[in-house]
Amino acid sequence: MPSLPTFADGKKPSKTIHVKGGAAPGGDGSPEKPFAGLNEAKAAITPGTEVRISGQVTQGAYLSQLSGTPEAPIFFRGEPGAQLGTLTFDTGGYIVVEDLELIGTGSGHVLHFFFTDFMLFRRLTIHNAGLGSIKGSQSRNVYVEEVDAYDAGKASVHPVIDFVGVNTGHVVRSKFHQGPGVVVMVNLPSENGGASQKPLGC
To answer: Based on C-alpha coordinates, what's the Rg of the chain?
Structure first.
């Protein structure tokens, strides 16, 4: 399948900061003094920032009200072999997350986003989810490409990927497997103009 258009096409970062697993606290984001985690790096992330992640950054991140712009998205990119803990986006948008392995704690969602707009998740491996490997709600223009998501519902029965109120975008060249029952749950328009959930895989 040829590449489909997304909001990030042709966009390049204007600056780069570094996050490295095992780095000493108090870094400044430079290659010599990387941040130890994404929460520590958040204040330095502005539109057009590329966040380069390396090593095993096991601590999860809750990123609220983090937004790029149409001209300057924010990029989270992994170096080869990079691993990251759970990742949550609460309100924001114009964000790209790519080339990472996301590993859950076995007690909640691994990749979770809500009240977001223009999100691109590409070339990710996502697993060890207590609930869903990917959980999205009340969001628009969400793009999922070349994602391998599996090993979900370890704490409670839950789909591997669960979209509720996620409108517009695409899911292509991706695999969802090893769930406790329903693998894919998405929101579909109902005849009365509302929305209904429908399982798409078992």
So the answer is: 16
